[in-house]
């Protein structure tokens, strides 16, 4: 077998430590869409409530989506949103005591949260041709990583 063999990294000899990762991302929307969200006028319901639940589910399913991720005993997930005039920022914080970090879980949570917002408001974002000229998801990144001995 070659050295390029695909494999999950063996973490059996690593110590369990406290881990926290915080990821953020932004979705750009029309100002009118943001107002509709604020006023509770989205046909499918409150996109932020659905996005929060979807993001939490995504964190827990990360190893199913990213093949080389370990199954981590997630101990906490917190997703929050900051609404601005033409953007919504999603922030996902994940905590665990384990042998490997939770960055992928936080990134997955924030990504799925933002995708669910898009799904719920897409009818407001489409132009006459059915395209999304203004809508975009950007700046998805880890903004904090903590690892400390327990």
Major sheet characteristics: 4 strands, antiparallel
| End-to-end gap | 39 Å
Rough shape? Answer: elongated
List the secondary-structure elements in sequence, H or E.
EHHEEHE
The CATH superfamily title = Molybdopterin cofactor biosynthesis C (MoaC) domain
CATH class: Alpha Beta
CATH architecture: 2-Layer Sandwich
- Based on helices, strands and strand pairing, what is the structural class? alpha+beta
Q: Residue-averaged pLDDT, rounded? A: 96
Total helical elements: 3
Number of DSSP strand runs: 4
Provide the CATH topology.
Answer: Alpha-Beta Plaits
Estimate percent helicity: 25-40%
* Chain oligomer state: single chain
What is the number of independent domains? 1
Keywords:
150 residues, alpha+beta, Alpha-Beta Plaits, 33% helix, 31% strand
Structure description:
There is one protein chain. Helix content is 33%, strand content 31%. With 150 residues, the protein is α+β, with helices and mostly antiparallel strands. The protein has one domain (17-148): 2-Layer Sandwich (Alpha-Beta Plaits). It is elongated. The model has no long low-confidence stretch (mean pLDDT 96). Helix 2 packs across helix 3. The protein has three helices and four strands; from the N terminus they run E-H-H-E-E-H-E. A four-stranded antiparallel sheet has the order 2-3-1-4, with helices on one face.
Q: Summarize this, please?
A:
With 150 residues, the protein is α+β, with helices and mostly antiparallel strands. The protein has helices at residues 31-38, 47-65, 103-125; strands at residues 17-28, 74-83, 87-98, 136-148. The chain has a four-stranded antiparallel beta sheet with strand order 2-3-1-4, covered by helices on one side.
């Amino acid at each position: 077998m070659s050295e390029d063999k695909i494999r999950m990294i063996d973490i059996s000899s690593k110590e369990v430590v406290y881990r926290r990762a915080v990821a953020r991302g932004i979705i750009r929307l029309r100002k009118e869409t943001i107002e509709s969200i604020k006023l509770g006028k989205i046909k499918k319901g409150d996109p932020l409530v659905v996005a929060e639940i979807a993001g939490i589910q995504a964190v827990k399913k990360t190893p199913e989506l990213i093949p080389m991720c370990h199954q981590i005993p997630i101990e906490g997930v917190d997703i929050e949103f900051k609404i601005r005039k033409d953007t919504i920022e999603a922030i996902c914080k994940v905590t665990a005591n384990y042998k490997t970090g939770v960055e992928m879980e936080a990134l997955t949570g924030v990504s799925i949260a933002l995708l669910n917002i898009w799904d719920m408001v897409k009818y407001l974002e489409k132009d006459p041709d059915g395209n999304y000229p203004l809508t975009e998801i950007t700046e998805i990144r880890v903004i904090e990583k903590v690892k400390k001995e327990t």
